Amino acid sequence: MLEIRDIDVHYGQAHILQGVNLTLGAKPLGLVGRNGMGKSTLCQTIMGLIRPSAGSIRLGTQELAGKPANVIARQGIAIVPQGRRCFPSLSVHEHLLLVSQGPLAVWNIDRIYATFPRLAERKGNGGTQLSGGEQQMLAIARALLMNPKLVIMDEPSEGLAPVIVEHLVQVLRQLPAEGMGLLLVEQQLGLAASVCDTVAVMVNGRIAVTMPSAELMRDQAAQQRYLGVAPHTHH
């Protein structure tokens, strides 16, 4: 579904992404790593918000590298950006109307309100009148309503209460059955592992390893090496 080959990204003199290679098929793929490793930069590069200095990004047979974000969105990629990016002047319902594909789409507004009842309760509120968690739900809903071939979720659990995170996991597990690809970028390894059978670990702008998520969950030494997670101490 998505094939990334030898992607480089520079910010001035800083070499942020260094020869990134990643392949995503029909099953969800988790992308984990510490802060500042380049995960969000990769998401923005795939989406066309940052132009790579080298490399290829293909969605199926379509080359995306260098194309603007609006073209990439029309070709079938949606993003839940870190920071949510809700419009302060638009209500919840107006946000959803902007991207709705109509009532016959797999993901339509009625289904969004059934999936996220809190958004239905707040449908008349503006984007900045919502709590952080509600804004995150709105950002996720906005991406799903586009019914894309692939959705990129950059830290979707950020700001959500644990009970909402559990509900989100159930929603994300449905997506492959509906033909939607998922690249899940998460700080929480446990959440990524609960949705994705495979995770890629980003370290210093490179994909250090791609491995079964269950294997990484069991390997505390690998977690410490790649993610800086201290081993558990048992008293």
Sheet having the most strands: 6 strands, mixed
Which structural category do the helix and sheet elements fall into? alpha/beta
The helix tally amounts to 10
Mean pLDDT figure: 90
Q: Could you name the CATH class of the domain at 2-85 and 149-227? A: Alpha Beta
CATH architecture of the domain at 2-85 and 149-227: 3-Layer(aba) Sandwich
CATH superfamily of the domain at 2-85 and 149-227: P-loop containing nucleotide triphosphate hydrolases
Shape: globular
Which residues sit in consecutive blocks of at least 5 with pLDDT less than 50? 231-235
Our measurement of the CA-to-CA distance between the termini, rounded to an integer number of angstroms, reads: 46 Å
CATH topology of the domain at 2-85 and 149-227: the name is: Rossmann fold
Q: Would you report the number of β strands? A: 10
Fraction in beta strands: 25-35%
Topology pattern, helix = H, strand = E: EEEHEEHEHHHHEHEHEEHH
Biggest sheet: strand arrangement:
6-7-8-3-9-10
User: Helical percent range?
Assistant: 25-40%
| Spatial extent as radius of gyration | 18 Å
Outline the structure in words.
The chain has 235 residues and is an alpha/beta fold. It has a domain at 2-85 and 149-227: P-loop containing nucleotide triphosphate hydrolases (Rossmann fold, 3-Layer(aba) Sandwich). It is built from ten helices and ten strands. The chain has helices at residues 39-46, 69-75, 92-99, 109-115, 117-121, 132-145, 162-174, 189-195, 213-218, 220-227; strands at residues 2-11, 14-24, 29-32, 54-59, 62-63, 77-80, 150-154, 181-186, 198-203, 206-212. The strands form two sheets. Strands 6-7-8-3-9-10 form a six-stranded mixed beta sheet, with helices on both faces. Strands 2-1-4-5 form a four-stranded antiparallel beta sheet, covered by helices on one side. β7 (150-154), α7 and β8 form a beta-alpha-beta unit. α3 (92-99) runs parallel beside α6. The longest helix has 14 residues, at 132-145. The protein is globular. Residues 231-235 have low confidence and may be disordered.
